[in-house]
Design goal:
With 223 residues, this protein is of the alpha/beta class. The chain has one domain. The protein has 7 helices and 9 strands; from the N terminus they run βααβαβαβαβαβββαβ. Strands 1-3-2-6-9 form a 5-stranded parallel beta sheet, sandwiched between helices. A two-stranded antiparallel ribbon has the order 4-5.
């Protein structure tokens, strides 16, 4: 059994350039949301990609596949978008990696696209930790929430959205329909994220955009 094959990227993480695909330029259009967070047209039967609209729960969140369904989708995938820190890249906010042998085993014989949305957007390593404020990743794209540095309160929303667009661009460029991302990250969390210093149920900014574009996202804690 061989290990995962990593696509060569320029620069270190994918997506140095953006703007070729108009779909990734307008946040509200990306998620089919208006600024007040409502679906652009609740009467439409199609989702943001033109396929069937995803069912939504009472809070308006998109219904997600079960853990078993997400894992099966990963197993069947040939190309996977992966948080670079899980592959051993020292790109976390604290300058460390989160190399996961479970993740590496799950990616054996697959083509891997490493991505760190925050580094791709130009943020340094290390960098101050960032929390979401006012909601989760979906709320950020709807204009209801922001991403701010935990201590100084500096708004990093634009950088985080740019990183998310670059991650989406990389997935589309290489044909990835599945992403395996780091849980609890304000970019990559898929089930839990930190909002105003408290861990809560929700998804990060990159995950929200990928899911809106039909990409299955699971976390390192799913496997």
């Amino acid at each position: 059994m061989s290990g995962p094959k990593t696509f060569d990227q320029e620069p270190e993480f994918p997506g140095a350039a953006s703007g070729d695909d108009g779909d990734v330029q307008q946040p509200e259009a990306d998620l089919g949301l208006t600024r007040d967070g409502l679906i652009a047209d609740e009467r439409q039967s199609t989702g943001p990609l033109g396929g069937p609209a995803s069912p939504r729960d009472e809070q308006g969140s998109t219904a997600l596949p079960s853990q078993a369904e997400r894992v099966t989708t990963l197993q069947d995938a040939r190309v996977v978008l992966v948080s670079a820190c899980l592959l051993g890249e020292a790109c976390r906010y604290d300058g460390r990696s989160q190399r996961s042998e479970r993740v590496l085993a799950a990616l054996a014989d697959k083509d891997v696209i490493p991505v760190c949305p925050e580094v791709a957007s130009g943020l340094p390593v290390p960098r101050p930790p960032v929390d979401l404020r006012g909601g989760t990743g979906v709320d950020v794209w709807a204009g209801r929430a922001v991403a701010v540095e935990r201590t100084e309160g500096i708004d990093r929303t634009e950088a985080f959205q740019q990183g998310a667009r670059l991650a989406l661009e990389a997935a589309q460029r290489f044909g990835a329909t599945v992403a395996l991302l780091k849980e609890k990250s304000p970019s990559c969390g898929s089930q839990r994220v930190y909002e105003s210093g408290q861990l809560r149920t929700g998804e990060g900014i990159t995950t929200a955009l990928l899911r809106a574009k039909g990409i299955t996202v699971l976390s390192d804690e799913d496997i």
